[in-house]
């Protein structure tokens, strides 16, 4: 086949199973998950934006994180819901590459955002006297802008390399469009794609990992050398970030391994479930975990709910 990727009108998503009438149950479960993710993340974003006491760098970084959860979920769930109800699991080339772009930039923004949050906590805990000058609101906005631009520009290079490939197949062994699985369909030389793909993994994972490791090593040093009060404060603010980082890293590492190695010995159902981990669990976990663990967000929610209760049940005159 000598046609380029532009002459191919669609890809086939090959991991969807024939589940018969159970598709309606799976559709309902997926729709409920998407609604919960959307409502929870939107609620925390609005709370941070509307509450002036939360207009601080740490909460601005959290707001960026929650916006990214919405971004990644919206890149994944609408197509998933449509495919669940469809008898033929095809997706147009343009929509497939749009989903690839959104999901991969979502992953990059997530890691970079967690790195910036780790550095912010390092300044707050290890250098509290310099924190207000080192991490201003303006600097926080600049860092957030850098995180998003860096992720978008980095993956535009990957996308441009993919568009030049000659394709010899159109079946992607996944529930969603996956960059490396598309590259594996090419019959032209993919050496440049593979090299930049590995380089992209380094830029996406290892670059943010360095400030993360540096920050948490310094924070742990303070925890073990400081007072009990310092230890409790440090752990209470850092534990949600650490859980979020470990959870997302697990999902991404599995996806990298799944796409690049033969996993036919692993049950297909298990592969499908684990492949969706970073696209479902992370957006669902982040707003709930940060909302429950961080006292100022929790208290702000209580204040909003309390004021609503007073409005709905005014005292008798």
Q: How is the secondary structure organized here?
A:
Blueprint: E1 10-13, H1 23-50, H2 57-85, E2 90-92, H3 93-126, H4 128-134, H5 137-162, E3 171-172, H6 179-183, H7 191-225, H8 228-260, H9 268-275, H10 277-293, H11 295-312
Parallel strand pairs: 1-3
Antiparallel strand pairs: 1-2
Helix pairs in contact: 1-2, 1-10, 2-3, 2-5, 2-10, 3-4, 3-5, 3-7, 3-8, 5-7, 7-8, 8-10, 10-11
Describe the structure.
With 317 residues, the chain is mainly α. It is 76% helix and 3% strand. It has 11 helices and 3 strands; from the N terminus they run βααβαααβαααααα. It is globular. It starts with 9 loop residues before the first strand and ends in a 5-residue tail after the last helix.
Features:
3 strands, single chain, disordered N terminus, globular, 317 residues
N→C terminal distance: 82 Å
Instruction: Tell me the series of helices and strands, N- to C-terminal.
Output: EHHEHHHEHHHHHH
Strand order of the largest sheet: 2-1-3
Bin the strand percentage.
under 5%
Low-confidence stretches: 1-6
* Structural category: mainly alpha
**Structural Rg:** 22 Å
How many DSSP H or I helices?
11
Shape: globular
Task: Please outline the major beta sheet.
Answer: 3 strands, mixed
**Integer average pLDDT:** 85
Total DSSP E strands: 3
Q: What is the subunit arrangement here?
A: single chain
- Determine the fraction of residues in helical runs and give it as a percent range: over 70%
